Amino acid sequence: MALKFLNKKGWHTGSLRNIENVWKLEQKHEAEELGKHIHEERERDNHLAKGKPRVRQLHHQRSLPSGSAVPGALFEDKPHSAK
Fold this sequence. Notes:
- By secondary structure, the chain is mainly α.
- It has one helix spanning 16-51.
- The longest helix has 36 residues, at 16-51.
- The relative contact order is 0.05.
- Residues 10-41 form the CBF1-interacting co-repressor CIR N-terminal domain.
- One of its GO terms (cellular component) is U2-type spliceosomal complex.
């Protein structure tokens, strides 16, 4: 007996109406979380701006010793010793 009629029931999780409702609720929840996250960041930035003057941080690149490795390489080439 085929059970294709089940997805037409209102309580079935595979019905298109229920799938659509779940998707809409998930989108709403994600939008609320994003709004909450943005609000927290703005509050934190405002709190930092009120307390101290902003100091601009400079990021310096570490200079590599000449000839040791190619920039961006994960490992250095080491000569293999013959024993």
